[in-house]
Amino acid sequence: MNSVSRQAVVLLSGGLDSMVCAGLAREQGFEVLALTVDYGQRHRLELEAAAAIAAKLAQRHVVLNLDLTRFGGSALTSDTPVPKTGVAPGIPVTYVPARNTIMLSLALGWAEAAGARDMFIGVNALDYSGYPDCRPEFVAAFQNLADLATKAGVEGEGFTVHAPLQHLTKAQIAAEAIRLGLDPAMSLSCYDPVDGMHCGRCDACRLRSKGFAEAGLDDPTRYASRPTA
Length: 229
Prior knowledge:
This protein is 36% helix and 11% strand. The protein is α/β, with parallel strands linked by helices. The protein has one domain (7-190): HUPs (Rossmann fold, 3-Layer(aba) Sandwich). The protein has a five-stranded parallel β-sheet with strand order 3-2-1-4-5, sandwiched between helices. Helix 2 links the parallel strand 2 (31-38) and strand 3 (60-65). The chain is globular, with a radius of gyration of 17 Å. The chain starts with 6 loop residues before the first strand and ends in a 14-residue tail after the last helix.
């Protein structure tokens, strides 16, 4: 008997990309099971943004506590300063070791338990910070892993990892938010917020601002400092 549901687990960080991802999942007819991981990230306001977005888009929202500060290895899980001099080549110190592998593994566990066979992740390989776990090869490899590592996969009910933003620019992602009727101001993408606002200087802020500008859209984001290229 096929128990596959029309539910999808959506990784919801609280950023613009994950919000658009949840909106696209719902547009495709999925009931959204939103999964947010509180991994000790320094940008705690993201968790509040995730809760607000989930209240609008999700059937259920689960926040899991997983303290990755005990491992360290990233500016987002330690006291290492967040770079604010512009988007540079290479893998930045804001990379969290194996983060998307960890997040998708948790999403996979919930999906199988819920009878869902679809997962959504808002990774992007165009306008992004160079993280290795945002590449199409990673998404394809994890989907293969999901089918190998689960009872559902072994029994022929394969999983699909949706990465609908994979090949979109930040401008296209910003435009999708508006098309979906979402409020970008609800999201928070900043690596190091200042007084409740986006700092305006980290990679995430610069890429976000660039996206709205290139899309010709008003940017509703509150920045402590106006981003530059």
